[in-house]
Amino acid sequence: MNGDVLAGSAACRPLWLLKASGGRRRVPSQISFNGLMEADSTGANMGEKAETDVEMTENPFEPYIESLRQQVEDQDPVFLIGVIVALAAVIITCVFLKYFLTSKTVRTAVLLVGLCDSGKTLLFSRLLSGKFKRTQTSITDSSAPYKAKNDRGSTWTLIDLPGHDSLRPQYLEKFKSAARAIVFVVDSAIFQKEVRDVAEFLYVLLTDAVISRNAPALVVACNKQDITMAKSSKLIQQQLEKEMNTLRVTRSAALSSQDGSVGGSLYLGKKGKDFEFSQLPMKVEFLECSARGCKGEDGKADIEGLENSLAKL
Ligand SMILES: Nc1nc2c(ncn2[C@@H]2O[C@H](COP(=O)(O)OP(=O)(O)OP(=O)(O)O)[C@@H](O)[C@H]2O)c(=O)[nH]1
Ligand SMILES: [Mg+2]
User: Fold this and answer.
1) In the structure, what pLDDT confidence band is assigned to residue 58 with cuts at 50, 70 and 90?
2) Structural domain boundaries of the chain?
3) Which of 205, 212, 283, 295 is buried most, with the most CB atoms less than 10 Å from its CB?
């Protein structure tokens, strides 16, 4: 009889209460609660403590969580996979849009940088008009549209920056975020004397947060190859790698002695390995050129290698 009553009460319970057996307790009582109150129909053993069911849901949200779980379980798994794939597609599209809107599709500047007298302004003139020009130390920037020698007819903005120590930082700051490529001009004839200064400038350039993030192509133009004493691009690359390896150690040590940590400035190349240009995030190319040309002022410049590089940007 008692068993009938219990069976009957279970039959009329809501589904979620039957499922939520974790919330069920057996307590001594003559009545049971399961949302509806049920009298003990036996009427016997009044003095005895009969064990009956008391359904208690301790968490008030449990019914809702349970019904949500039920709904998810009832769904077709193909439908759920479809929803996940659609969400992933939306996220990936947003990431790609952000990347392409801020990437080099909007960066069209080709910067000519380097120490004083390395030949930037003469290269600027040769690239734009092919003509030789007598130059003076630049005190401001010059820019002009440059049509690359490729089938796409790409047009970049060629910008000649002053090389003087006191002017360099401000002009670099002004144009660095627009750089699609950086042509770093080196005077190969007096490179041995300037190696430390060249490496320091290159180090500052490459550890710059904006340049490192945008990773514009780096072309190291080893200029003045018409002079007999000029060093080859291979030797210049090797010596710069050696010098920058040393600089990396001294700069890191200087930073850590200032504030106790090596933070702030970016670490150049791979930790635990000797510095090589191939470790940088951007494409790096070393090439030889002569803005003057071996036939002097009346002849043509020897800049085909540089023109080819600019055509590939
Ligand atoms: N022999 C030789 N001389 C060159 C070459 N390129 C430039 N020069 C000379 O080097 C000197 C300096 O050239 P610029 O083009 O003015 O140098 P720059 O890098 O613009 O110098 P700043 O404006 O001071 O930063 C000039 O007398 C040029 O004629 C080259 O390929 N060979
Ligand atoms: Mg100049």
Assistant:
1) low
2) 2-64, 75-104, 107-311
3) 205
